[in-house]
Specification:
Distance between the termini of chain B: 41 Å
Number of helices of chain A: 9
Shape of chain B: elongated
Helix content of chain B: over 70%
Mean pLDDT of chain A: 92
Helix content of chain A: 25-40%
Radius of gyration of chain B: 18 Å
CATH architecture of the largest domain in chain A: Orthogonal Bundle
Order of helices and strands of chain B: HHHHHH
Distance between the termini of chain A: 66 Å
Number of strands of chain A: 7
Low-confidence stretches of chain A: 1-5
Number of domains of chain A: 2
CATH superfamily of the largest domain in chain A: Alpha-helical ferredoxin
CATH topology of chain B: 3 helical TM bundles of succinate and fumarate reductases
CATH topology of the largest domain in chain A: Fumarate Reductase Iron-sulfur Protein, Chain B, domain 2
Largest sheet of chain A: 5 strands, mixed
Shape of chain A: elongated
Number of domains of chain B: 1
Strand order of the largest sheet of chain A: 2-1-5-3-4
Low-confidence stretches of chain B: none
Oligomer: heterodimer
Number of strands of chain B: 0
CATH class of the largest domain in chain A: Mainly Alpha
Amino acid sequence: MTQAQITPSTPATVAAMMTLKVKVLRFDPEKDKKAHWVTYEVEASAADRVLDVINHVKWYMDPSLTFRRSCAHGICGSDAMLINGRNRLACKTLLRDVVKKSGDTITVEPIRGLKVEKDLLVDMEPFFDSYKAIMPYFINESPEPAAERIQSPELAERMAHSSNCILCACCTTSCPIFWVNGSYLGPASIVQAHRFIFDSRDEATQQRLNIMNQNTGVWRCRTAYNCTEACPRDIPITQLIEEVKRAVMYQQA
Amino acid sequence: MYRGREGQWAFLLHRLSGLAILAYLLLHVFSIGSFIFGERFYMAIHHTYDLWFFRLGLVVITAGVVYHAFNGLRIIVMDFTGAGVAYQRQMWYGVMALSVLSALYAAYRLYPRLIGGY
């Protein structure tokens, strides 16, 4: 090849440092009556993640900042936050995707619809209660075969998307229905239900569809698509919810 | 304000237009029904409809009804077909275009009334 190609073009890995204003919605139940904004100036690279910036604030500027994070690689689902007006995982959001230039501001808020315990940490119990309500376990009472229960690739494909969920609550807490009606099971639970309803080996389909047919179930969905936009695992959530709606409807007909 | 995309605004507008249509219908039934209290009462109410707010409201309610009707069809398509979910954004822009066009047409037809009243 020609010599010109030996010199690398501007590599994507080299990112200039920039100064950011990180605006965090803070709340300390022991001191504050209301949540309030606190801005921190942080130097960061465009290739850093939002989690790196918040960690920097906690480790070097204000150790009282409270938030959840664990694996920091987008698989444990701990650090769902409302970043720049949208639900995202802080560990999967690169700064270059939320800010344009040095001096820009990023806003970080706790996810909505769940009670804020402190700063960015919310009470996840109601979320996991709705998860438990959909019976998130495999049910098959027929005798076990000698080897595994066989499933064809086509049938496995039907639950390929829904089995990707990491229960981070990005979808449920982006749902306008969930914000005003906490009894709605929410997109995350319906995705989990979808995973078992469309599992050819599961035998409790009828029971699961009945749970989805209750007034806290799938009919609360008004197709606002916020869940689909928010999902850090790129699950087409609204499409899955619609599939469950159709499954409920055609079973009842 | 949560920065949702088209779907969120489609949902919000559907709710608001639904409420607007309900309010319009109740007002309509009440003002027509007011004739049982006699012509003076009926006319008194109908003179208030000559205020600019109500004149402009005619255009808004046209847009609201068209939006609610066509977005309702969009929701039906989404609920029954996978393609509907895939093309919900495009369909919503279509619904918005139809609503704006019908509002413009209503404004054109009602122009004398919008400007000068009855």
